[in-house]
Amino acid sequence: SLRTREPGNYHINFFEHIGIVIELMKKDIVEANSWLSLYNQRSKKIGHYWGMAKKKGASFTLNDERQIATSIG
Q: What ranges do the domains of the chain cover?
């Protein structure tokens, strides 16, 4: 005869651990999508900068305001 047994501590801990792993994987996927979205937005901005640099030349890239806006630090 087949009887259903109460789960032991091992089984309870195992499934709790699996649940935690699944939650962390969901979180990582959401963060990865957010990061990818930000990266794509940044790439578009960089592409726009170089497009304007090509179109306007030195008057765009050497402009004092542009140098301050794009300087690091």
A: 9-70
